[in-house]
């Protein structure tokens, strides 16, 4: 059984390289990316979701097998497709387009949950996207969280709002209801502007701590991160790299943070580790391929010490 199990939608990514007509095909999906990052950082990670009985679904299953991500709780749905998305790079940043309506993962409901795997895990990780893809998916996340809470499993939540998936008022209501029951909040500053209407990182941390989170790991993009608890907080500056593509960097942060936190029990040490891992993940195209392994992160930390 995995120590960290994630519930959400895996997807196949078509990422257009800057200045070309070439699309690189790889695997993506926020919580799947996070589990790959966790596995590359040494954690026992797994997925609970569904994929289609199609080439893209088989591609995801093969990727998890290569990466050591447990897929025993992944359902193969013969009647629904695997979701895909496209990434384009513009002057304003990366732009996403989705083909996910009616996907296998969006049909994964409360009755499909691997309750034994959830109860035996140390962390359940979910996101705003996990709940945005359908009402059934949102209900499945709430049911999984209740199962985890009853078993004493830590709950981790990345706000990860996508306005193309649902309107902000509904996203705010659902996400903030979920976040009243979590232990580890993993928001991004851009999400916080939409969800809580504040810009100051400390004010964002205060808001999510007030919801009941024990730890807030606020991702600040190119400005690093802020780690906050009720007793202490630490602003961690960015780890400087030559960034090429930030797709999946926040997901890398999530998985690296959870892996290191389970290993050390120290949120601030986990924040430093995850901040570095996320930066290293921007040095190549795609969500999964550029993700660093533990040895890479430790070497970068030692070089910058």
From TrEMBL:
<keyword id="KW-0547">Nucleotide-binding</keyword>
<keyword id="KW-0067">ATP-binding</keyword>
<dbReference type="InterPro" id="IPR011611">
    <property type="entry name" value="PfkB_dom"/>
</dbReference>
<dbReference type="Pfam" id="PF00294">
    <property type="entry name" value="PfkB"/>
</dbReference>
<dbReference type="InterPro" id="IPR050306">
    <property type="entry name" value="PfkB_Carbo_kinase"/>
</dbReference>
<protein>
    <submittedName>
        <fullName>Sugar kinase</fullName>
    </submittedName>
</protein>
<keyword id="KW-0808">Transferase</keyword>
<dbReference type="GO" id="GO:0016301">
    <property type="term" value="F:kinase activity"/>
</dbReference>
<keyword id="KW-0418">Kinase</keyword>
<comment type="similarity">
    <text>Belongs to the carbohydrate kinase PfkB family.</text>
</comment>
<feature type="domain" description="Carbohydrate kinase PfkB">
    <location>
        <begin position="20"/>
        <end position="292"/>
    </location>
</feature>
<dbReference type="GO" id="GO:0005524">
    <property type="term" value="F:ATP binding"/>
</dbReference>
<dbReference type="InterPro" id="IPR029056">
    <property type="entry name" value="Ribokinase-like"/>
</dbReference>
């Amino acid at each position: 059984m995995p120590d960290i199990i994630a519930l959400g939608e895996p997807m196949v990514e078509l990422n257009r390289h800057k200045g070309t007509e070439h699309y690189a095909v790889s695997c993506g999906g926020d919580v799947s990316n996070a589990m790959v990052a966790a596995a590359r950082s040494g954690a026992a990670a797994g997925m609970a979701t569904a994929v289609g009985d199609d080439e893209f679904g088989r591609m995801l299953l093969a990727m998890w097998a290569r990466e050591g991500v447990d897929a025993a709780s992944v359902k193969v749905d013969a009647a629904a497709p695997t979701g895909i998305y496209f990434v384009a790079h513009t002057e304003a940043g990366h732009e996403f387009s989705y083909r996910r309506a009616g996907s296998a993962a969006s049909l994964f409901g409360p009755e499909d949950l691997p309750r034994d795997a959830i109860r035996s895990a140390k962390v359940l990780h979910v996101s705003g996207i996990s709940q945005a893809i359908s009402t059934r998916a949102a209900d499945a996340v709430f049911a999984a969280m209740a199962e985890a809470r009853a078993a004493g499993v830590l709950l981790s939540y990345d706000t990860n709002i996508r306005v193309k998936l649902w309107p902000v008022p509904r996203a705010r209501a659902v996400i903030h209801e979920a976040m009243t029951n979590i232990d580890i909040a993993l928001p991004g500053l851009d999400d916080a502007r939409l969800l809580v209407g504040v810009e100051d990182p400390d004010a964002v941390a205060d808001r999510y701590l007030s919801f009941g989170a024990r730890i807030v790991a606020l991702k600040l993009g190119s400005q690093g991160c802020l780690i906050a608890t009720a007793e202490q907080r630490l602003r961690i500056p960015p780890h400087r790299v030559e960034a090429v593509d930030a797709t999946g960097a926040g997901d890398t942060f999530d998985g690296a943070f959870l892996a290191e936190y389970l290993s050390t029990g120290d949120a601030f040490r986990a924040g430093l580790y995850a901040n570095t891992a996320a930066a290293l993940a921007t040095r190549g195209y795609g969500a999964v391929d550029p993700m660093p392994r533990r040895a890479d992160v430790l070497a970068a930390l030692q070089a910058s010490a």
